[in-house]
Amino acid sequence: MLIGVILPVILAVIMFSLGLGLRAADFWRIATQPRAFGVGAFNQLIVVPAVAFGVVTLFALPAEMALGVMILAACPGGVLSNSASRYAGGNVPLSISLTAVISLVSTITLPIIVALSAAHFLGTDAPAISVSALGVQVFVLSAVPVGLGMALTRFFPGLVATAGPWISRLAFWLFLAMILAALINSWDAFSRSFWALGPALIVMNAALLLIGLLSGRLARLNEKDITTIAIESGTQNGSLGITVGLLILGASSGLPDTTLPAVIYSITAWFLTMPFVLWRRRLPARAVVAA
């Protein structure tokens, strides 16, 4: 099916645009802010999948949809989380470092979580999932384009300075095109499952934003760091979730149900994330007035 080829290509372009904004220093910056990075990494790698598992259990979602939620939870943040952190007045370098490192680590953790979740939710109906093969696919579709983007920035900074903003805009519109294509190809399934998945995903998003705030405060981080930790905890890479869901079950007759959570999440997440971003953006102004 054509969409089975197009979606991975779109994901690769999106990840390439992410790489254009990364530097090698973003990977090493964690040494200068280990506590903030540690909280963010723990949330993304441990807390997010745990909360997702609790949500799918609480809402008793159908097996394939539950697997799709776990796939989404295993995905790192992405370009949108970096943009949201910037607009909210968060610690953008911390956001970029988390995205860079967790994107690399997820090439290992995502296939493991997916394989375990498939076995748990699908049981004997679970497809044969090779953790190593899926890891290679995720690496090729995410880490390799990021690396190419970083290399282009390193060796051709002038070109990237000129073309980078246009590529970022292209990536954004391609992301929207991916969501639209997914909706068109699975509209019946989307309309049928929206009211089951939508509330579950909103609850998950709200819980993760709250956990991000609380964990940042418990770690005694500053407000910029707390804002970023919350956004990174509550924002997953929907484009990667859609693509992995497609890779697991294929697209012989439309997109499988494993892609629906990522599609719906890409819509519902902004119901809470945007108000949260606007609230955090106003915090410095209120602090100045209060002073």
Explain what you see.
This protein is mainly alpha-helical. Helices cover 83% and strands 0% of the residues. Helix 5 runs antiparallel to helix 10, helix 6 runs parallel beside helix 10 and helix 11 packs antiparallel against helix 12. Keywords: Membrane, Transmembrane, Transmembrane helix. It is a multi-pass membrane protein. Its main location: membrane. It comes from Paradevosia tibetensis.
Provide a quick synopsis of the model.
This protein has 12 helices and no strands. By secondary structure, it is mostly helical.
Rounded to the nearest angstrom, the distance between the terminal CA atoms is 60 Å
Mean pLDDT: 85
Low-confidence stretches: 286-291
Which sequence of SSEs, written as H and E, runs from N to C? HHHHHHHHHHHH
- For the CA atoms, what is the radius of gyration? 18 Å
Count of the separate structural domains: 1
Number of helices: 12
Query: Roughly what fraction of the amino acids lie in strands?
Result: under 5%
Q: What would you call the shape? A: globular
**What is the fold-level CATH name, i.e. the topology?**
Na+/H+ antiporter like fold
Major beta sheet summary: none
How much helix, percentage-wise, in residues? over 70%
CATH classification class: Mainly Alpha
The second-level CATH architecture is Up-down Bundle
Q: Please state the structural category.
A: mainly alpha
What's the total number of strands?
0
Topology:
Layout: H1 3-20, H2 24-28, H3 34-58, H4 63-74, H5 79-87, H6 92-122, H7 131-155, H8 157-185, H9 187-218, H10 223-234, H11 238-249, H12 260-290
